[in-house]
């Protein structure tokens, strides 16, 4: 109940992005790519807002589910679930970076689910947070930024209540039967970035919520440690093609 699924991060899988990570939580797999554009959205120019912006897109590929699903964009319109998830990813990652320190740039975060088995939004945030750190560190190493704009490391995990017990990092079969479904986004300093919790046709108590938070915090400590290791490994001088940024 208190264990994470096996987690891995494979970096550099989409070489045309500034940084990319294939993140795996058990059977859930998401490609997280960060691309830095040397421009800002029009609304920032119109409102004369200094600094840069970060925006996220999320998509579940049609073959990512057991039964093929329709594309989440039909006739140019994104479905409600994907739209909600991409806004959550964007908000979560904007907490990680000081946008006033990235210059007039846009950080594009693309999360594409290759295989969905529960927790795709939390895997997306966790993987994208690693890709974001690697991308921003590349800009600093290339001399494009004087100092690191990273404020903190952001990580996410799901927790829930299943048959009255708190459960960490749910897969789909657990998620579909859970009485309570919660997504936790936190920093490596133990601060909350966002908490999404719902009793699926049920209700839950403060005591149950505290049990889920405790389990989630324990899982997030382990996840943050893995993220830090992957980021440090990717930042070694021979790990990436820094000349691509010059
Ligand atoms: N799912 C699916 N098809 C969908 C939406 C969800 O098969 O259109 C499955 C998928 O395994 C997903 C899980 O249901 O990971 C839980 O979905 P939820 O909306 O709770 O988001 P997630 O847990 O992936 O962040």
Commentary on this structure:
The protein is built from five helices and eleven strands, in the order E-E-E-H-E-E-E-H-E-H-E-E-H-E-E-H. With 246 residues, the protein is α+β, with helices and mostly antiparallel strands. It has one domain: Ribosomal Protein S5, domain 2 (2-Layer Sandwich). Strand 1 and strand 2 form a beta hairpin. It starts with 6 loop residues before the first strand and ends in a 12-residue tail after the last helix. The C terminus is likely disordered. The chain binds uridine-5'-diphosphate. The site of uridine-5'-diphosphate has 12 residues, from helix 3 and helix 4.
Any chance you could write out the topology, listing elements then pairs?
Elements: E1 7-11, E2 19-25, E3 28-37, H1 42-46, E4 53-60, E5 73-74, E6 77-78, H2 80-94, E7 106-115, H3 120-141, E8 154-162, E9 165-168, H4 172-177, E10 180-187, E11 192-199, H5 206-234
Parallel strand pairs: 4-7
Antiparallel strand pairs: 1-2, 2-3, 3-7, 5-6, 8-9, 8-10, 10-11
This protein binds uridine-5'-diphosphate.
Uridine-5'-diphosphate binds at residues 65, 69, 81, 116-121, 158, 172, 175.
Properties at a glance:
single chain; 246 residues; alpha+beta; Ribosomal Protein S5, domain 2; 4-stranded antiparallel sheet; 5 helices; 11 strands; disordered C terminus; binds uridine-5'-diphosphate
């Amino acid at each position: 109940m208190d264990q994470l699924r096996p987690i891995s991060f494979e970096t550099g899988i989409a070489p045309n992005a500034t940084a990319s990570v294939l993140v795996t939580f058990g059977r859930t797999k998401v490609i997280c790519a960060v691309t830095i554009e040397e421009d800002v959205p029009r609304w920032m120019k119109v409102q004369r807002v200094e600094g840069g912006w970060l925006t996220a897109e999320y998509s579940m590929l049609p073959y990512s589910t057991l039964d093929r699903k329709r594309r989440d964009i039909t006739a140019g319109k994104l479905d409600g679930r994907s739209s909600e998830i991409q806004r959550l990813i964007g908000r979560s990652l904007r907490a990680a970076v000081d946008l006033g320190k990235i210059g007039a740039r846009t950080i594009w975060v693309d999360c594409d689910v290759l295989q969905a088995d529960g927790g795709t939004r939390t895997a997306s945030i966790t993987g994208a947070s690693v890709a974001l750190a690697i991308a921003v560190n590349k800009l600093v190493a290339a001399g494009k930024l004087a100092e690191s704009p990273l404020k903190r490391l952001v990580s996410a995990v799901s927790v829930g209540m299943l048959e009255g017990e708190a459960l960490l990092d749910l897969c789909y079969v657990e998620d579909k039967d859970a009485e309570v479904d919660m997504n936790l986004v936190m920093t490596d300093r133990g601060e909350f970035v966002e908490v999404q919790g719902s009793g699926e046709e049920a209700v839950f108590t403060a005591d149950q919520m505290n049990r889920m938070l405790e389990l989630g915090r324990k899982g997030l400590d382990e996840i943050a440690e893995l993220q830090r290791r992957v980021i440090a490994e990717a930042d070694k001088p021979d790990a990436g093609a820094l000349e691509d940024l010059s």
